[in-house]
Specification:
Radius of gyration: 22 Å
Strand order of the largest sheet: 1-3-2
Order of helices and strands: EHHEEHHHHHHHHHHH
Shape: globular
Strand content: under 5%
């Protein structure tokens, strides 16, 4: 399933001009651009990503901050949804208090209260969320190296990262059910290790082994990887364990 820029704009209410701008800043890149016509197409996954972007915009996150959050290697859609829900609930709570204050004024109770305008609770939650990835990974040398390496990535760079990552994951998915010790699957592990080192941080066997364990120990990673095919995360984890034991 794919959508043209016009279809995406009509479906989401986001202007064509805005979609082009999101592409320019590396926030939402079309999955396909036809060379001879220049037509741009967005996939279902891109539409889902756009919805995530609109949640952030609804919560008044600056575009620069949204790019930083969503292009982070530790970004997780389910975590994002939970945190966005928490922030929207806080926003609704604040709006309810403001409506109550207006109703009181309309009834003639002109209470000079300004507590209802306080944004500190929402801002504190936003700051906590925006820094979540750094708090989880920021003390590691790998995180620092990745942050330094990726800080100047362009939209083309991020598109290349995603394309190569998806290609490798698809290779694993196509061989679910086969022995993780096979020479072919072990070559995929080598590709994945090189991919991480090339685009993010130097991935030695110790780090790779830890990642392999996390792919099955953390259900959020398992679900994301298994979008390529049920059992993909387990195959990668098993194959990494074999690779690192050789």
């Amino acid at each position: 399933m794919k959508f043209t820029v016009s279809e995406t704009a009509k479906l989401t209410g986001v202007s064509v001009r805005t979609l082009h701008y999101y592409d320019e800043i590396g926030l939402l890149t079309p999955n396909e651009v036809v060379a001879n016509t220049g037509y741009r197409y967005y996939s279902k996954q891109s539409i889902e990503r756009l919805q995530q972007i609109l949640f952030y915009r609804e919560l008044d996150f600056p575009l620069k901050e949204i790019v930083k959050i969503m292009n982070n290697t530790s970004y997780n859609r389910e975590d994002a949804l939970r945190n966005q829900r928490e922030l929207l609930a806080l926003k609704r709570k604040r709006l309810d208090k403001l409506i109550e204050l207006l109703d009181s004024n309309l009834k003639g109770d002109n209470t000079m209260s300004f507590n209802e305008f306080d944004m500190s609770e929402i801002e504190d939650a936003k700051n906590k969320y925006a820094k979540e990835a750094e708090e989880r990974w920021g003390n590691s040398d790998a995180y620092k190296e990745s942050a330094e390496k990726t800080k100047n990535y362009t939209k083309e760079d991020w598109a290349n990262v995603a394309a190569e990552s998806n290609t490798i994951m698809t290779k694993f998915a196509e061989h679910v059910g086969e022995s993780p010790e096979s020479e072919l699957i072990q070559s995929f592990v080598e590709e994945w290790k090189n991919h991480i080192s090339k685009f993010h941080y130097q991935c030695g066997n110790e780090i790779l082994a830890g990642l392999g364990e996390m792919y099955v120990a953390d259900e959020r990673f398992t679900k994301n990887i298994d979008k390529f095919g049920e059992g993909t995360a387990k195959l990668i984890s098993d194959a990494i364990r074999v690779y690192c034991s050789l």
